[in-house]
Amino acid sequence: MLVHIYRSNRKPDTYLYLAEKDDFSMVPDSLMTVFGEPEFSFSFQLSAQKKLIKEDATTVLNNLKEQAYHLQLRKDVLIEQMLTMKSAN
Hints:
The protein is 31% helix and 26% strand. By secondary structure, it is an alpha+beta fold. It has one domain (2-81): YcgL domain (NE1680-like fold), CATH 3.10.510.20. The longest helix has 11 residues, at 57-67. It is built from three helices and four strands. The chain has a four-stranded antiparallel β-sheet. The protein has helices at residues 29-35, 57-67, 79-88; strands at 2-8, 15-18, 38-45, 69-72. The relative contact order is 0.26.
């Protein structure tokens, strides 16, 4: 599967993987608000056998197939914390 990676301009080490390039329609508005303006990084072919540095390839593929996106956060930040931080601002 061809995967497209975008980095957050607001949150360090936060990336959004998309199944379709520049198609953010399946990403919840609340997540996009916290994520900020996506900055395209690169595209690559992802398979279950591919080793990713911070993510499990099978999990990423499943998320892309089920919801058309995958969110990669810093390991010390949970999505619930990320959304809470936004609502506090």
